[in-house]
Design a protein that fits this description.
The complex is a heterodimer of chains A (about 240) and B (about 425). Chain A is an alpha/beta fold and about 240 residues long. Chain A is about 40% helix and about 20% strand. Chain A has helices at about 55-60, 85-95, 110-120, 120-125, 130-140, 145-150, 155-170, 185-205, 225-230, 230-235; strands spanning about 15-20, 30-35, 40-45, 70-75, 75, 95, 175-180, 205-210, 225. Chain A starts with 12 loop residues before the first strand and ends with a helix. Chain B has 2 domains: about 5-50 and about 280-415, no CATH class; about 55-270, no CATH class. In chain B, the strands form 4 sheets. In chain B, strands 1, 3, 4, 7, 8, 9, 10, 11, 12, 16 and 17 form an 11-stranded mixed β-sheet that branches. A two-stranded antiparallel sheet of chain B has the order 2-15. The chains are: A alpha/beta (about 240), B alpha+beta (about 425). The interface of A and B includes residues 58, 61, 84 and 98 of A.
């Protein structure tokens, strides 16, 4: 399989023997023997609170550094990178969507969507004309043009989540990580949002790691995993 | 990796409108105060130093050197004793003395000091960088009841050559102390100098004698009244004067002549070098200046503390924002730089606004300051010494900005991409 960049694709995420312990904690918070997210795959990760979800996403994002084991994201060994290199890697290759409050409240919706291009030259390059890219993504995600000029704080939660999705997708990052992106939405909007997100990931060929506690959503994905089963340390905690 | 700083910083500052505006205003006011004190200090010093030039010695009755300088040149305070004319006359013929201008003080005209002197005053008194006095209208006094007025007197009282004026005894507090029987005619108006000369009414020494013929010990002699037309029948040669300005043939003899006068027998006299005494005066005033400057520096510190307080208190509300930036690829260092930039930008905005405030203010009060206190405040943006202070303020702001920036750095390290609130 070939990634959008044209290079031979590695797994989006490949980790083995990964262990992490918070400084000062008595036990490991995360201990995963093996986990792989294939390139282009859309994976549902069942992760209730206490399962080590935040820690895992922070490790994949490069904000935290593993104590032991290997962690490869898009073929790059994150533990070999320095802090600033991991920040740069995250900016270039990963799009994040969180549960809510994803946006910088004082920037307009359009500026929020374009923000990753200001951080990452390579994403800006892939996006081409940033204004056009913003308009195209907004169109795909049902965001009317007049809404894009409004400050993010004035948008409804559903609109904010779609702006967040557009921001995660701009400049075609290879990996999208969504952390409970639908839990602030009602059931009807959850389904609509999921349709848009899955469709966009498929169309740009991005891998999607979708974390949620809501198992009803799992059937929409290529594959489903449970973090509590992957993470040996989580069982001890619960 | 570098943050898209300007875009974010500007948007973030705009977002926190009122608090930011107030912070900037506080810094602006404190900077205006600091620079204002510094400017007033320098300008006051400059206008004092420019008051008299070309005069080698000032001679008066023995008192304090600063006191003699103040009453003879700056018209501040009064002489406690006079000098007899015979001593002054003797000094005039001293072999080292090139010229001597006697000064007789003690009368006034509508709040302006009257200076009894000789026509030599116009030839020898210089101000600024050895600028001689010039007449903007008319000529020097000639007759007994002629007067020359300074630029400020002419401007505020509307005098031109030909105007009739009445002098008062003392500072002119009592109408009864007017020399109303002997009016003077203005013969000339001096060009503006920016010195106490502008606020003086100059008359001949004979005029001082004439208006006091029927006076004794500060009040009219009861029953004695000598009309103006008869004063010529009296001896109007001066008996006593207040002080004298002396120019020497050779400047190198100044210390010898000074010592000669100060150690002479008989009537105790004091000769001072104006420049040296001015320095002495500044040493006294300098303490007050430094205190003022220190107070204004503290006010600037308070302004900057306000800035830090505003930013630090806004940080807890911004943790989510910082987490989002982290998720987008910002490192803790970028967050540090972001906060630093924001803080320094506000401080610089405060400085710019402060300088503008000061400029407007100094343009506004300069005429009043000149008229009331004779201090020439030149409206200008910044000069070199003020620039040094401004750089100091920005440096202090840079230092203070480390506090919110460091906190933001800690937050973004601890929070990562998620906010635990």
């Amino acid at each position: 399989m070939v990634a959008p960049g044209g290079t031979v694709s590695h797994p989006a995420v490949a980790l083995s023997g990964l262990r992490f312990r918070w400084p000062g904690a008595a036990r490991d918070c995360l201990d995963i023997a093996d986990f792989t997210l294939v390139a282009g795959e859309r994976l549902f990760l069942h992760g209730p609170s206490g399962s080590g979800k935040t820690t895992l996403l922070s490790l994949i994002g490069g904000v935290l550094r593993a104590d032991a084991g290997t962690l490869q994201v898009l073929g790059t060994d994150l533990s070999a990178l320095s802090g600033p290199q991991r920040d740069r890697f995250r900016a270039d290759h990963i799009g994040f969507i969180f549960q809510q409050f994803n946006l910088i409240p004082y920037l307009s919706a359009a500026d929020n969507i374009a923000l990753p291009c200001r951080f990452s030259p390579s994403r800006a390059q892939r996006a081409g004309n940033v204004d056009d890219a913003v308009a195209r993504l907004a169109g795909h995600l049902d965001l009317p043009a007049d809404l894009l000029k409004r400050p993010a704080a004035e948008l409804s939660v559903g609109q904010q989540q779609r702006v967040a999705a557009a921001r995660a997708l701009i400049g075609a990052p290879s990996l999208i990580i969504a952390d409970e992106p639908t839990s602030a939405l009602d059931a009807a909007r959850q389904a609509a949002f999921l349709d848009l997100l899955l469709g966009e990931c498929a169309s740009v060929g991005a891998s999607l790691l979708f974390v949620s506690h809501d198992l009803r959503l799992a059937e929409r994905f290529d594959r489903s995993e449970a973090l509590a089963e992957l993470n040996v340390a989580a069982e001890a905690m619960v | 990796m570098r943050l898209p700083l300007w875009h974010l910083t500007v948007a973030s500052i705009r977002n926190r409108g009122l608090a930011t505006v107030l912070t900037v205003v506080a810094i602006a006011l404190s900077v205006s105060l600091l620079l204002g004190v510094e400017r007033l200090r320098n300008d006051a010093r400059a206008s004092f130093a420019n008051t008299l030039s070309g005069t080698d010695l000032i001679v008066g009755a023995r008192s304090g050197a600063v006191q003699l300088l103040l009453y003879s040149v700056f018209h501040i305070g009064d002489a406690t004793h006079d000098v007899s004319w015979s001593r002054i006359d003797a000094l005039r013929s001293h072999k080292d003395v090139a010229w001597l201008v006697p000064l007789s003080l003690g009368d006034s005209h509508r709040g302006f000091r009257v200076v009894g002197t000789t026509a030599d005053f116009f030839a020898h008194v210089q101000t600024g960088n050895r600028q001689p006095l010039r007449f903007s209208a008319g000529r020097a006094f000639d007759g007994v009841f002629d007067a020359v007025v300074g630029a400020e007197v002419a401007a505020s009282l509307g005098y031109a050559p030909g105007a009739k004026i009445v002098l008062s005894h003392g500072a002119g507090e009592f109408a009864a102390a007017e020399h109303g029987d002997k009016p003077f005619t203005v013969t000339g108006v001096l060009a503006r100098t920016g010195t106490p000369v502008d606020r003086s009414v100059l008359v001949g020494l004979a005029a001082i004698e004439a208006i006091h013929l029927d006076w004794q010990g500060g009040s009219r002699i009861p029953g004695v009244e000598i009309p103006a037309q008869f004063v010529g029948k009296f001896d109007l040669s001066p008996k006593r004067v207040t002080a004298a300005l002396i120019g020497l043939e050779r400047r190198s003899t100044v210390f010898r002549v000074q010592r000669e006068i100060n150690t002479s027998d008989g009537e105790p006299l004091l000769a001072i070098l104006p420049g040296v005494t001015l320095d002495e005066l500044w040493r006294v005033v300098g303490v007050v200046e430094r205190v003022l400057l220190a107070v204004s520096a503290f006010v600037v510190a308070v302004g900057l503390a306000g800035l830090v307080a505003t930013l630090v208190s806004s940080l807890s509300a911004r943790r989510r924002e910082l987490a989002i930036l982290r998720a987008l690829g910002a490192g803790p260092g970028d967050v540090f730089v972001l906060l630093m930039t924001e803080s320094v930008l506000l401080a610089v905005a405060g400085c710019v606004l402060g300088v503008a405030c000061l400029w407007a203010l100094s343009a506004g009060i300069a005429p009043w300051l000149m008229a009331e206190h004779g201090v020439q405040l030149v409206p200008r943006f910044v000069d070199q010494s003020e620039l040094v202070w401004l750089v100091g303020v920005v440096a202090a702001a840079l230092l203070a900005s480390v506090i919110p920036a460091w906190r933001a750095y800690r937050y973004s390290l601890a929070d990562g991409m998620t906010v635990r609130m």
